[in-house]
Amino acid sequence: MNRFIVMMVSFLIGCSAFAVDNKAANKGKPNLILEVKSGKSVMKISANGGRIISFTYDQKEILTQSSEHENFGSTLWTAPQSNWGWPPFDVLDNQKYKVVKVGNILKMTSDPDSKSGFQLEKTWQAVENNSIRIEYLIKNISGKAKSVGPWEVTRVPCGGLVFFPDGGKGKVPDSNLKPDLQKDGIKWVSINKNPIPNHQKLFSTGGEGWMAYAFDGCLFIKQFPDIQPENYSPQQGEVEIYINKEKSYTELENQGAYRLIQPGESIEYIVNWYLAPIPETVKIEVGSQELASFARKQMIQIKNK
After folding, report:
1. How does pLDDT run across 138-166, given as a tens digit for each residue?
2. Which residues, at least 6 apart from 304, have a Cβ–Cβ distance to it below 8 Å?
3. Residue 290: enclosing H or E segment and its boundaries?
4. Closest CA to 80 of 305, 226, 303, 234
């Protein structure tokens, strides 16, 4: 039996730590894992792809794991998908990132990817209120101007309730996944665990710059810059939800502004993650005003940090 060789190097970012696991799940590559804590919320990030592989509150997991599906955890893609099809660029999505500590901020940087013409940089910082700030940079390392948008793709288990503010009218692709309800400016999508004949995808405008997922008694919120439909990447939406037909995972996707960047320039995209329990007095159901109000209250606290 192969042994795990684990090195723990502690440093101060809300009791964070590095770990080196020589039996990595990602194609057998040595895997550096970063842990960031904020209150009772703990995030773990793999240097293989700079992928967030775990986000828990009091040991309750909100992300799918590598043992469940090959598409797991959370990552950043370049938009639109029409520029690369499938699979994502390997250097940016799977290969090992360089990891450094700059003050109280942890940074992971991909190698320059000649195929896409981009290099990704990701930083994480614990803040108060069980939230973690993530800053993404997409750098143009090619010799010509390129248009691109940031696209955060987060895989969660099915069996929860997604809701987010609608952004009104805007040109987005047709969707074969429809909201269960749109009420008081919020779209609600209930996701059960029953397999379906085909994959489903919802493309939508967004408003207020957040989306939430209620699952297993906890509320997961992603807060991001709100953008207008004229700034969407081609054939994409500001908010997208994908469900695979086996119901082994759901993707909560948010996108930033699509723009032209010159050689050497970068796009910045900042997202705040929040995870905490939902009070027992709050109804967890489609159209729940209490749940929407609770999410907005947490949003105010996140923005004030």
Report:
1. 999 999 999 999 999 999 999 999 999 99
2. none
3. helix 289-303
4. 234
* Position 144, amino acid: K
Taking only the tens place, the pLDDT of each residue in 83-125 is 999 999 999 999 999 999 776 688 999 999 999 999 999 999 9
Candidates 181, 188, 182, 192; CA nearest to 163 is 188
HSE of 135, CA atoms in CB hemisphere, 13 A: 12
Using alpha carbons, list the distances in angstroms from residue 253 to 36, 102, 112, 174, 223: 22, 28, 24, 16, 11
Domains in the chain and their CATH numbers?
73-303 (2.70.98.10)
Tokens standing for residue 284: 């967890």
What pLDDT shows up at residue 86?
A: 96
Question: For the residues of 30-52, what is the DSSP string, one character each?
Answer: -EEEEEEEETTEEEEEETBTTEE
CA-based torsion, 44, 74, 187, 227: positive or negative: positive
